[in-house]
Every structure is written in structure tokens, then in C-alpha cells.
Amino acid sequence: MSVHKFIDTDPSIHSYWRSIILFGRNVTTYKLALGRALFAISKSENDLIKIEDLAIPYAQYLCTHLEEHDKQGVSKGSTFLDACRKFLRKQINESQLIEQTCKYGFQFVLDKFHNVSGGRIKYDFFIDERKINKGIRLTDNLRIISGNDSLGILDDEAESRWRLVETAWGLGLSPHLISIDYDPINKQLTTEYRKKRKNITSCRGALSGYQKGVCFYCFAPIDIHQNTDVDVDHFLPFRLGKDGELPNIDGVWNLVLTCTECNRGKDGKFDRIPSLELLERLDRRNEYLIESNHPLRETLIAQTGSTDKERQHFLQECYYKAKESLIHTWSPDIKGEEIF
Fold first, then answer.
1. Whole domain around residue 210: which residue ranges?
2. What Cα–Cα distance (Å) separates residue 135 from each residue in 82, 108, 162, 299?
3. Residue 5 belongs to some domain of the structure
4. Which of 110, 139, 150, 294 is the most exposed place for a label (fewest CB within 10 A)?
């Protein structure tokens, strides 16, 4: 049985920025407005940006969108958005709007801007110095990506993402039902309605033989006849298929049996990328099923490649794309004997 050695990847600074914009939570559009405001002020000669100066482009972007789409979040009320609405109705002036923005507009978005998929990315695009200097300090990382974005591509992507979220809300859909793809040739985002998620629990029996009654990740005992302690998990997260990043995300090549603790427990995988060691384990599993003439053999070959080199390349490319998008990696605490 062939064993491949895969190569890890460290996403570029631009990829980290895109992960914030494209994979942030869609409960409000504050993060999108802040991203565009940061680009607007990145040309400033000063690194320290006072909150009232940041508030100007931040509020302007939100007001511009509110004029066309009144819904900019999923909560029932927002003191800050109400202030923006009053400004548009000329019930308050610009100075009052900026005052309200400083007071209410940055309550959570500055703290959570650098969080993606439940964790903080390793590059900061600003440092929060509100407590000591009443502002934020721009980092070289922001200068780099904004300086290289002479055509405004990244800023356009943020605006496009914003429009997509508004479209979903306007149609009464969850933003998670909209598929978002980046077209590097045309440098545009495209969208299409996603298919509903498939029910894949029936493949428990097909996957259980290789795993010998233990979790793929931590080797804790599992029982496929119990509905409460076994999950069918997408090794590379399901959302990467929904967002158009990876092909055939529901394919058998990407499915493993896990304990509920690894899949969705307190320190579970969720939307993080399994470690390189676990990718090696997935490859060994797939090769084993192919070489042993398992009933899933032809399915796996059709999904990943007809030769071991093609299959290695397929997994490596999928891992690169997954890491570029979701950034964070994950590995479990081992709870049993490593038997595969």
C-alpha cells in the first residue's frame, strides 16, 4: 500500500484577508463595512487612526448600503443602524452620526474582525488601542495588501460579498444558502443558489469496516448502531463545497466516521482543517479501500484519480485550497490505540 508525504502550506497575507471577508459570520454587515473602511484609511500617513476618523468611512459605507437595503443584520434592533437611518432621514447631522458611531458602531466588530472559523488568524491588520490611545494602529500587513491592490480587487470583493449577503436577506434566505466563488481570471465573485445538504448517514456501514469501531481522528471506541455517539464527518469541511472551494465535497473520499466529541464537542474540529498527519491517514484509508477491491473502489477512483499519483495530487490540491480559505488547523487528543 502506498503512503504519500504531503506538503503543508502557509496562506499568503492576501489569503488571510480574504478569509476574513469571505468566511466571516453573516449576522451583520459590520465586518464588511470595517474592511472597506480600513482600505479607505490605509493611505493615511499616520499609523494611529482615531476612532472618530475611522467612524467617518465606516458609517458612510453603511449609510450607502442602507439607502438601498434597509436590512443590514439579523438582530431585531440596532442603536447604531437606527442612528444611520436617522441620518439618512436628516433627523440627525453628520457630527451626531459620528458620535453615535463611535459610541455604538464598534462594540464587537473590532474585537472579532480577525476571527475566522472560531479562531484568530495569525496576521493582524490593525491593533486595537482604544483603551490607551482612543484608536487603532494600522499594521504593515494592511499596508502590504492595500498597496498591492492598486486595481481595488480586494475592496471590490468585499463590496461584492456585501451585495450577496443583502441579496440573500432580501430573498428571505440564509446567507449560507448562497454559493460564493472567486474567479481569478476575471477577478470577480460569482454566485449561484446552493443545493440542499445531502443526508449521508447511510454510509456509516460502508466506512465502519476500515476504522474497526473507532473514531477516525482520536481512536475512541464508536458504535455505528448508536445514533448518539457516531457522526459522518466531512474531513475537509462541508462549507468549502457550499462556497464552491472544493469539488464533490460529499464524496466518499472526504467522509470519515468520528465520535461526536471530535466532530462537534468543546474542542471539536468544526470548520477547521485537519492536520497534515490526519491528511496522511485519510490518504492511507482511501488507498486501502482501493487496493483491497472494496465496493467503494471505483467510486473513490472516479472521485480522486485513476493512479496513486493522481490521487495524491488531488488531495494535495484540495488541502491547499482548504487551508487558504479556512486557515486554522486542528488535531485531536488521542484516546485509544492507533490502529490505522
1. 201-330
2. 23, 14, 25, 56
3. no
4. 150
